[in-house]
Amino acid sequence: MMPTEKTSPFIININKPKGITSYDVIRLWKPRLKKLGKVGHFGTLDPFASGVLMLGVAGAQRLNEYIHECFPKTYLAKGILGQETETGDLTAEISQVDESEYLKNTISNFEKSFIENQLKEKFLGDYLQSPHKYSATKHEGKALHQWAREGVEIKKEQVLRHIHSIEVVKYEFPDLWIRVVASSGTYIRTLFSECANHLGTIGVLEDLIREKVGGCTLDNSISEPNWSDEDFQSLAMDTVLDFSSLIMAPKEAGLYQNGVRLNSDRALEISPGTLDAKYFWVRSEDKTILGLAEIINDQIVSKANF
């Protein structure tokens, strides 16, 4: 149900359609959420992509880094082997075509299982990746795609990512569908291009769907035809991030809210959550969330207060 004006911070799971930016989604939702507080999103989806886009409202947007840290993201990607563009997707003209006999006579006959084994062997686990030059990664305060469109190519150092799983869903040459579970910040356009390179050709991403981030999936997302409904399903931030909780007596709760660092033994109890993480919700005796904290050197250190 839609929260009331005196609501706690919450999250909405949106199914972003193709053809609009992630900020467009915020712009479309802001009018109905403005009385509830500020709105932000967790993780940009390119305009050509669709799927799970989480909105944080009334303070929940401050949890952005914890969403990224705690949850890998699941994507279904469809790409084309033997073609390449400057952007890595079909928002740009084809710039290169592989006309080799190896592509036509060998790669075209690869079995789906063979491709999957090759990709697993190469990419599973820790994975170093450079941000795509047409990406939202910043350089001197400006996104790389802005530099690229001005004719300046910025090469960023490789960043360690993690591929939890990779599956070949379907292969109908030259079309290849892969499902990837990857750590936050992984560029699937770049990954698909590198998958194609590993198979011995080039590749371009045609379609991308983000299927899952934590407990937010396509099945429990709100699709565009329902955006105008008077009521919508919202998610409490501790439902999405089910950290363990530190329960505080009134005196300690007041001290915590005033910025005082307390020893962890000042908590009345620790209520376990399901996420194996270093963070804790700090709660009053009536279980109201006061903030998010980390225990460092046996002290409760605030990360965000609400």
Give me the Rg, rounded. 22 Å
CATH hierarchy class name of the largest domain: Alpha Beta
Give the domain tally: 3
CATH topology of the largest domain: Pseudouridine synthase
Give me the number of helical elements.
Answer: 8
Task: Give the fraction of residues assigned to helices.
Answer: 10-25%
Q: Report the mean per-residue pLDDT as an integer.
A: 90
Could you give me the name of the CATH homologous superfamily of the largest domain?
Answer: Pseudouridine synthase
Low-confidence stretches: none
Gross CATH architecture of the largest domain:
2-Layer Sandwich
Number of E strands: 20
Alpha carbon gap, first and last residue: 21 Å
Work out the strand percent: 35-45%
Q: Order of SSEs, N→C?
A: EHEEHEEEHHEEEHEEHEEEHEHEEEEE
Class by alpha and beta content: alpha+beta
Largest sheet: 10 strands, mixed
Shape: elongated
Q: What is the strand and helix layout of this fold?
A:
Blueprint: E1 10-16, H1 22-33, E2 39-42, E3 50-57, H2 64-70, E4 73-81, E5 83-85, E6 94-97, H3 101-105, H4 112-123, E7 125-129, E8 138-139, E9 142-143, H5 144-149, E10 159-172, E11 175-182, H6 188-199, E12 203-213, E13 216-217, E14 235-236, H7 237-240, E15 244-248, H8 250-257, E16 262-263, E17 269-271, E18 279-284, E19 289-296, E20 299-305
Parallel strand pairs: 3-12, 15-18
Antiparallel strand pairs: 1-3, 1-14, 2-3, 4-11, 4-12, 5-6, 7-10, 8-9, 10-11, 12-13, 15-17, 16-20, 18-19, 19-20
